[in-house]
Amino acid sequence: MAASHDAAPPVAQPLAPPVGAPPITPPLAPPPGGVPGRAGLRLMAVHAHPDDESSKGAASMARYAHEGVEILVVTCTGGEAGSILNPAMDTPEVRAQMPGLRRQEMARARGILGVGQTWLGFVDSGLPEGDPPPPLPEGCFALTPLADAARPLVRLVREFRPHVITTYDEKGGYPHPDHIMTHRISVEAFEAAGDPDRYPEVGAAAGLAPWQPLKLYYHLTFHKRRILALHQAMLDAGLDSPYTERLDAWIDRAEDTGRLTTSVECADWFPTRDAALLAHATQVDPKGAWFRVPLDLQRAAWPTEDYQLARSLVEVGTLPEDDLFVGIPVSARGVAA
Questions:
Q1: Which has the minimum average pLDDT: 22-26, 256-260, 302-306?
Q2: For the CA atoms of 155, 158, 163, 168, what is the dihedral angle to 10 degrees?
Q3: Chain segment 66-122, per-residue pLDDT in tens
Q4: 3-class SS at 99?
Q5: Residue 309 and residue 166: Cα distance in Å, rounded?
Q6: Three-state secondary structure of 165-223
Q7: How many CB atoms within 10 Å of residue 201?
Q8: Local structure of 320: helix, strand or coil
Q9: For residue range 17-73, what is the model confidence (pLDDT) as tens digits?
């Protein structure tokens, strides 16, 4: 069962930036009054752990926040089972404070991105390793019955009233049990929140009206076309590519063909994305593979973040799209035309 959203996190000492991290790049100041056409739009990004919001769709969110879109990141677990992946942070003191530090990191990252954020309160399942893998811990997110796991998200959808929801595909983006469960509850909430007969305890009984999101997207961060483009850009620049081994081991699958439907131009927000990711200091090595491709090469080789349009209740016209909000009518936004 989910913990209370109001439960106080463990007390942690203030978190310093990781050793070797570049200075934080603040988000670009939004234009006065936002960008025309964005008024009233709302985006909900559902993620498994703190740091996932900064590695998947972060530049898109930063761009949309800059343009005046209201954004809520929903973090399903506290990331308590995460390992310390930054050698500079791997100390007994940090390990003893991990739950509180991960909340600190999340607060720093959401401030950099300029988004709202809340917690569903479930317990991190961890990533089981071994052959065979060990059983998941009792009471973890991935073992929670679907209705119990989806209920707090359905409530948030009815409270926040997003037009667009982003999450992971049916494989979780990669086969982490929490990512797969995040996919399941996101689809459940998308399909149930607009039906007054489903989850009435977080509907009429709670004073909340049904709300039907109009579009559901899956992140496509590590698809082959993007990786090939970045790999070739590194080779053309005379640099070692961090993608060589991944591409050598890549297995093409028929079900992955044609998934990319939407590419959001957001290269100007790549520095903001990286700053948000570095804010998760226990999880990110500033000297690691995430940062080996120079930003100028990334901007030139692949200036977008990419998505699969999984559900749409509005007409979007010809694919591919260049915007998550294509087809959302002004009448759905609660603003004057």
A1: 22-26
A2: 10
A3: 999 999 999 999 998 888 999 999 999 998 888 899 999 999 999 999 999 999 999
A4: helix
A5: 9
A6: EEECCCCCCCCCHHHHHHHHHHHHHHHHCCCCCCCHHHCHHHCCCCCCCCEEEEECCCC
A7: 10
A8: coil
A9: 433 334 444 445 555 556 777 889 999 999 999 999 999 999 999 999 999 999 999
Decide: 335 and 174 in contact? Cβ < 8 Å.
Answer: no
Question: Residue 187 is encoded by which pair of tokens?
Answer: 């689809």
Q: Which fold, 42-223+257-296+305-326?
A: Rossmann fold (3.40.50)
Q: Are 215 and 164 in contact (CB under 8 A)?
A: yes
How does strand 42-47 pair with strand 70-77? parallel
Rg over CA atoms, the chain: 20
Domain boundaries, the chain: 42-223+257-296+305-326
CA atoms of 56 and 75, how far apart (whole Å): 13
Q: Which of 60, 65, 57 is nearest to 221 (CA)?
A: 57
Residue with tokens 């989806």: 150
Higher pLDDT, 11 or 190: 190
Q: Please tell me the distance from the alpha carbon of residue 89 to that of residue 217, in angstroms, as a whole number.
A: 34
- For residue 2, the tally of other CB atoms under 10 A from its CB is 18
Q: Which token pair is 2?
A: 């989910």
